[in-house]
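Service request form, structural biology core

Requester: graduate student, group of Dr. S.
Request type: structure prediction, single chain
Budget code: on file
Notes: please return the result as structure tokens.

Sequence provided:
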Amino acid sequence: MREKETEGGLLEEVIGIYFHTKVTKGGRNLSCAALVAVGDGKGRLGLGYSKARGVPMAIEKSTKDARSHMVQISMVGDTIAHEAMGEHNASRVWLKPASPGTGVKAGRTVRALMRVMGVHNVLSKVFGNTNPINLAKATMDALTQMRSLEEVRRLRRPDVRLFHPQGAAQLQQPVAAGPDAGAGK
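Core staff response, request fulfilled:
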């Protein structure tokens, strides 16, 4: 795994390099694949996986793929917005926000994604298959489920409260929506 900052201010981390061999009548054809995570350190994250003849070309194609598939992830402070479970094939990843000073409690693949995204405090647990490709995609599934407090308030009722390890005091107070905002408690 290597991490570098690219010209656009994006962080790029190579999670894994894989070699594939196709046996044909003419001999063995070797190809390389790379799994790359790209992020801005402020909540944007992309994941790319591509094959090519050589390692540098595979990394370049994966980086381009990751940049084109970047998504904005909802964060609170320097952690994720809420708990989430992501799945891909036989891998499941559980992510939970953590208090300041906890650090990133995660394995190699999940830690790489959190690092380029800018998350400094998170707890994680992996269930099932630990293949890095499946874990990365399961982590992306969990992260794309994140909803901000404003989005949840818009989708539900305006008096939604946030109980979060890094939630500010003003976020824990309900927002009055009108004369019947307190009704039904």
